[in-house]
């Protein structure tokens, strides 16, 4: 791998031990992948900051980087953690103590504690063609597909090392030719009507398509695009989908394989994988984290319904200032039920509009899942006399 003089100095330890170790990691992985050089990045986003995922050893590793002079050279944000900031979900005292240590170490290194899986909504919004190093699957696919930035699906520690060095290996989504669509997806006589159907389509694409796809159908709006992209990243391994009206570098699909999806296939997939909404113990909205528009929708229903008859869990960024305003409206700041310990809340079945959540909840927590759009979910959760 060719390194610039500055990169060689980083690797030789002239910028300190933390930079040396971080550069060693980046170079080693890049060489294993066959990358010819490194590229400067403009931002980083680190996942895997939940103590339930990384344990005490992971906390100690990140504290080591902070103690040995590691500092973010670029705009750097962090993913949700395993605890909400307000203690709504019960905390194990030992794990919470470790989590606080981890947050202090990240803050000391200059990472912004946004605690969100949607950093592009909260100050970390790269532009077209910018090289970045992000480690949250739904954020990576959004950055590539909607913002036109360039990132692979990095591991959390790789994104941390990239933030400290300001470099990432030039490979995969950083290369122009790797961003070309290889599969053309058409919809036979239909298009998604809401974010839940868009998510179901994204899940199908994740399962059926391995190469970069181009979707020949216009989605109703950006919320549907977010849902489709997050689902495709969770159910498959996609980092980029070319979307009509959303992808700034949307390209023609030359000599592409063709995949067709009809509504009957979508319906069959829904019925095979998910429960009916009736009998759900709770509703979950906010995977990826809610936007302002969705939060306004939730609040409007809360007011109209006079509160909710079952818990409505809303996952929001740690930087938000929202507080519950109605009965059974539960705002989880800085976390997500996907990574939090839900067993203490005793839910058997959760209804959600997120196909990303629908992928992880059964696998991580053994919870049955129902899927519907946000308006249907909120009507279902309404107090009985207020349903409409």
Write a brief caption for the model.
The protein is α/β, with parallel strands linked by helices and 388 residues long. It has helices spanning 5-11, 17-33, 51-67, 93-108, 137-147, 156-165, 195-208, 222-235, 263-273, 292-305, 355-365, 374-381; strands spanning 38-40, 43-46, 75-78, 132-134, 167-169, 183-187, 213-216, 242-243, 257-261, 282-285, 312-316, 329-333, 349-352, 368-371. α2 (17-33) crosses α6, α8 packs parallel to α11 (355-365) and α10 runs parallel beside α12.
Features:
single chain, 388 residues, alpha/beta, Aconitase, domain 3, 5-stranded parallel beta sheet, 4-stranded parallel beta sheet, 12 helices, 14 strands, 39% helix, globular
Describe the structure.
This protein is α/β, with parallel strands linked by helices and 388 residues long. It has three domains: 172 residues, Aconitase, domain 3, CATH 3.30.499.10; 94 residues, no CATH class; 105 residues. The protein contains twelve helices and 14 strands. The strands form four sheets. It has a five-stranded parallel beta sheet with strand order 12-11-10-13-14, sandwiched between helices. A four-stranded parallel beta sheet has the order 8-7-6-9. β10, α10 and β11 form a beta-alpha-beta unit. α5 packs across α8.
